[in-house]
Records
---
Amino acid sequence: MYKILMIEDDMTIAKAIKDHLCKWGYETEYITDFQNVTEQVIKFEPHLVLLDVYLPYYNGFHWCSEIRRVSKVPVVFLSSAADNMNIVMAMNMGGDDFIAKPVDLNVLTAKVQAILRRTYSFQGQLNAIEHNGAILNLSDMSMICGHEKVELTKNEFRIMQILMENIGRAITREAIMERLWENDSFVDDNTLTVNVNRLRKKLDDAGLENYITTKKGVGYMVM
């Protein structure tokens, strides 16, 4: 079943579209927290996003750009501001289509079906891991903390990846070093310590203090 996420602050419109798309067999949800949109996209893992232009806090152009930093999921804009300038802006920010409001539900359904048909020969669309306000971008080996992008070295990225793939579990230093060796990067015990300390410093500077916890006698973990 394809999953569709709506980012629409008019709850009457959101509920009407959800009810309509559910009748067509799509698992459809809408968000209510408009300050943390990207995190909700990652958690829901939609196959398609319907995005309004005018939203609380930040507009749809901003959120489309943020979504594009972590995902290639198709984004369809919905807006009453359907003039050429807004349509061009939507496409430039990474949108895949634009539907003018008031929305004709039959047109919407046809466009949704066409985009899903074109897009899925199924590939995993989300290239990110999210936890507690941090997003690890698997496509460019960076972390997004709030609105700040933190560049990681290859070893820092791989350490962060293994920890975020095992949230709440302590990973031994030996297991982390073995993971790094698999990628032709020989790391001894001292080098691992240096890499972890440098990674912690970057996360602290980005506002993620104590994100990596030391489990005495075992290794490291992310809670």
---
Amino acid sequence: MGAGFSTFSTQINLVTSSSSSSFLSNKTSLGDIPEGCISSILTNLDPPDICKLAKVNRTFRDASTSDFIWESKLPSTYQYLIDRLGDGLPSNLSKKDIYTRLCRPNPFDGGTKAIWLEKSTGGVCLSISAKGLTITGIDDRRYWNHIPTEESRFHTVAYLQQIWWLEVDGEIEFHFPAGTYSMFFRLQLGRASKRLGRRVCNPEHVHGWDVKPVRFQLSTSEGQQAISQCFLDEPGNWINYHVGDFVVENPTVPTKIKFSMIQIDCTHTKGGLCLDSVLICPSEFRERLKRF
């Protein structure tokens, strides 16, 4: 009886083992998920997460390149951005390639301005160099000079040695996607340079900024206005000084913005200021930019 039971037990084990192998061989893997389903999932993710999942396997990689996924990540005005850049982008790029290229700073208007997309959200950012602004006295080397630097995306900044009347004006007309935007002046007190491989900042000409505040203001073609003022401080550091915010409701209509930085109290001189650029970006990044 013992021998018979042993034989029966062995047969049961063989059947069980065979069933388990059959079950395992029929088990569904990630590679069996239809590409269309994966594409539908990826449309709900941010661009960095899409790129991470593209490394899972070939199906995910193929799905992650679908035009309809990346078109949903591009801003509604992306075709306008491409047209504004002129011949800056080839015409045969996929939507993913367009997104990638637009995430880099793309110069336009003779290199005095640049646009790019924030990688995580696709938000449109725009920067205007000092050479794209109207600066009182900029042609007189007793007051201002354009100096080269690696600390600006435009590779040059306007440096103020000394002046009585400080006035910087600018304007831009642009098709921004709908949303709320913040404007900043990127400034630094002191002139930075490299010495023995280390960054040093010369505060020799820094003076007059603690007497009266600098006033920043902006106005839009829709009648929005913002005014702020503050004393310039922290020599040696690039700081984004917040001008104000504005709202874009209709992306099909260009928004015209006029802005300025003024300190026209002629009772004292001021100097030692580096002016890099004016930055416009989605307001969700406002607090982050204020810290730098």
---
Amino acid sequence: MQVVRLLEADGVDVVRDGRYLLRGITFSVEAGQHWAVLGANGAGKSTLLGLLGAVNHPTRGTVKVLGRQLGRVDIRDLRAHLGHVDPRHPLRSPLSARQVVLTGATGTIEPDPFRKPSAEQLAHAEELIDTLGVAHRAEAAWPTLSQGERGRVLIARALMPLPRLLLLDEPATGLDLTAREQLLGALDDLRGRYPELASVLVTHHLEELPASTTHALLLRDGEAVACGTADEVLRSGPVSDAFRHPILITREDGRWSARTRR
């Protein structure tokens, strides 16, 4: 079986004002894999996601996104094939949830008045809205949606252009327990429905990882502490090392939890 690598980072450094934000990062993401990137605040998670999302360039090393190397390709072309979920979506007008999802087809914040959605796009939007469990709120205005509903709407929006890779930047930020569990359940369902889709989810809470997580990268001060399958990496030793704190990791029903090891 041919291996399809959607992301490749090789010896990546990111230096700003003489300070290393990332140093020597090497890993790859294949089709169907679901990666978690974890670390304390300031570990370099957001910087790495910016590289993977073709927003920034490395200072040294190479990053290939969908087989094309950053610095040798128009990054606007790459972004059209990536689904980026940012809970800080800068929408200011009271669009309905359905309208927000449809803006994913044009890659704009507001609807493009010169590009009307096709019948196929409308049908795809309805399928995604249903898959993410927000069909009952499709007509609700964005300001009236709960934080959890907004998160699921933004995931549906990111999937509108049929991306091969989904990037999730702390999608459970600010969610209460129920909303978090609904979001993670929706991600598990989504991954089952689209088996070739790959994803990278950034967080610093293991409780925010879906059970369908397959791989993990632990960062500390911009360097990789551990990288590999979730079973290998998300253990007490590597996580304690990454967070510089004695942590006990347990897993039950496919989900991880963390607490101080006494």
---
Amino acid sequence: MKKDKAVIVFSGGQDSTTCLFWALEQFAEVEAVTFDYNQRHSNEIDCAKEITKELGITHHILDMSLLNQLAPNALTRSEIEVEEGAEGELPSTFVPGRNLLFLSFAGVLARQIGAKHIVTGVCETDFSGYPDCRNVFIQSLNVTLNLAMNAEFVIHTPLMWLDKAETWKLADELNAFEFVREKTLTCYNGVVASGCGECPACKLRQKGLDEYMKNRKEF
């Protein structure tokens, strides 16, 4: 029998939506939190709203505009090009401190609504080199949040060791394959579903989908 309550950090993208379906399987109650940091396109927030509404999920949208002021990059400034980093360098889409802040505020929200579990779609396998997607960071922050708030939160990362093909497989196992494929927004240019096909996020998503479809069993 499912029990406990969870908060999921939710962007409306492939990864967080897959994690949302995972959380719905694991917990008795799930609420979503989306952060508005004046990101490159507002479509991301609109997409998150539509998904949570369709699934009947309580959805919190928190103002994180300060992050936009502090961290100029390709996701907060339309004039900065989306570029993959050279070897040893972070891509232009890295937002310093984003997951640190998002998960910290998710913890504050979780405490207020009586949730012990925090779910996030970070992944160390296909993480573009972002340091705040590493497992060691999540483990460290989990300890810090519990010490800071005298709580017993557990941060769950269902995708941590999955590549994109395996993430598609998980969505399929959760009976959410077509939902994720058609209704999520991963594209850096704000195009739902298959996206623009040109940005790094779209290429990674499509590569994983192609790989999974080659090996997908017929049901």
